Amino acid sequence: MWIMETDGTKVFKPGRSDWAAAAREAEQCDRFRPDDEDEWVADEPRSCYNCRYRRWTVRSFACMKG
Amino acid sequence: MRILVCIDDTDNLESLGTGQLTSVLAEQLEEAGWGRASYVTRHQLLVHPDIPYTSHNSSMAFFADIAPDCLERFTAHAESFLARESAVGSDPGLCVVDMAHLTSERDLIDFGRQAKERVLVKAEAYGLAEALGVHLTEHGGTGQGVIGALAGAGLRLGGNDGRLKGQLKIDSADGTVTVAQLLAHPNVDAVRTEQGDVLGAGERVRLHDKVKTVLLGGASVLLVQRDGECPEGGGWLNLSRRQLKQY
Hints:
The structure holds two protein chains of two kinds. By secondary structure, chain A is an alpha+beta fold. Chain A has one domain (2-63). Chain A has one helix and four strands. Chain A has one helix at residues 19-27; strands at 2-4, 10-12, 54-56, 61-63. In chain A, strands 1-2-4-3 form a four-stranded antiparallel β-sheet, with no helix packed on it. In chain A, strand 1 and strand 2 form a beta hairpin. By secondary structure, chain B is α+β, with helices and mostly antiparallel strands. Chain B has two domains: 2-163, Alpha-Beta Plaits, CATH 3.30.70.2200; 167-238, no CATH class. Chain B has six helices and 13 strands. In chain B, the strands form two sheets. In chain B, strands 1, 2, 3, 4, 5, 6 and 7 form a seven-stranded antiparallel β-sheet that branches. In chain B, a hairpin with a 2-residue loop joins strand 11 (214-216) and strand 12 (219-226). In chain B, helix 3 runs antiparallel to helix 4 and helix 4 packs across helix 5 (145-158). The longest helix of chain B is centred in the first third of the chain and has 15 residues, at 71-85. The interface between A and B is medium-sized, with 18 and 25 residues.
């Protein structure tokens, strides 16, 4: 589910639009913290896509608590 | 007089977001008796490896109508507010446009468009701000936020970018409302489909999840789609957060 880049950055492998996978990952994550509601993009409230600690990249996002 | 305010890059991973700070600033403008602020809009800028940002690279903007003699006081207040409230490690920028003295709306709008497509640098932002007669200042860190602040002002002025901050609260016993009821809300100017079909006042819309509008044609628009769960097949449903992601 995750790609570890050489600089230690943890990138979400499924990309920006795998809603189910992002929700599953967030359910299992004890560091999930919802971002401001205005930055939410997933319909599932608990989703990595709605997490304060995700940093969007061109193709996916990096987990800043990885 | 009418002003346009935009701020960018005020947060870090643990702080209040830029959207919340923008809302507070808009509220303070009203509380001070300087004027009335409009709704706040969020504008997505380019995500690129060469652009530093906390998590999403978006800026926040609002229009305000203020008394002419309040412009200097508001701008000074906004500057000190950003310097004080911005998070450690952030690179805040502030843009205040006096609409009556903006020399080229087209150039400001074009800068906003460019910020969604290519990497811009501070010198370009400052150069354009000076040419346009726009207040643009940085308030900590690298000051990189001036790019997003100027770009966000251009995107808000263009009127075809971004989502409104917050969500609509509309009372309904059964979860459905008429278009007329929606249009009675101060932050809803139109109800239509993504294809541009405008709904009549009597049509019904089922509201689900968070109800948010987007900025299209200079208006706050609630986008809807056919409601597949409507038994008569004639109802409408607001777009979901996922569907609004592109705005």
